[in-house]
Amino acid sequence: MIWVNAVIQGVLLGGLYALFATGLSIGFGVMRLVNLAHGDLSILAAFVAFSLADALSINPLVALVLILPGAFVVGFVLQRLVFDHVVGVDPAYQIVATFGLSIVIQNALLAKYTADSRGLRIGRLATSSIHVNDKIGIGWLPLLTFLCGVAVLGALALFLNRTGMGRALYHALFQLLILQGFYQCFAGITLPNSASVSLHESLGFQPVGVYQDVGYKLGVWHDVGWWQRELRAPAEPLAPAPFGTAAPRKSTT
Fold first, then answer.
1. What is the dihedral of CA 53, 56, 59, 64, to 10 degrees?
2. Digit-coded pLDDT (tens) for 7-47
3. CA-CA distance, 63 to 15, in Å (whole number)?
4. Which of 4, 60, 86, 139 is the most exposed place for a label (fewest CB within 10 A)?
């Protein structure tokens, strides 16, 4: 039963990692922003929750009602004043800017709260659990964290699929690839995946082939289909431009 309990706790912890990975994926993968202050901003919010809970004598979870809107405002200001000026340029600028922001946050927290470890006091929720049997227990806090991760990922998937944002992101990608000097765009899709196939074909992708039984997931072998979309008419190619220096260029022909 020990291994069963270990698996359950690992899955619940995976919900927390999924939350972290979602933010990093959007920042690094979609926005192309190397944000070294990602973790420091999260810790800053936790310390603000600590201070509010202590000053107002409320549960830190209740303080989230104030923290979340405030975090949105701080994120918006940072995006306008800092991040917008370093996205699309040499990543070194992003590293310097966000590393500097990280140092500022760390030293401000150190000056305010010292180096002593602190914790958010959330009452019985921190220790209460669901006892399946004498050897297996599921903590309420890890369970709620896992459910939050599932809810965030589900909401993000619905947002991208139902609002047209996924389609808009793809069109922005096409324009960027053209500026970088590419002529063709390829998409690999693990099959079956009718939703992804429909999305790509609606964007002009055409099926060009299938690699059979090349992906192994959850005990099953899967085919991987390939789709192709022409970005512009073929011409004498130029060397692809790096992401940060992409700009309209003319062919030599």
1. -70
2. 888 888 888 888 888 888 877 776 778 888 888 998 999 89
3. 22
4. 4
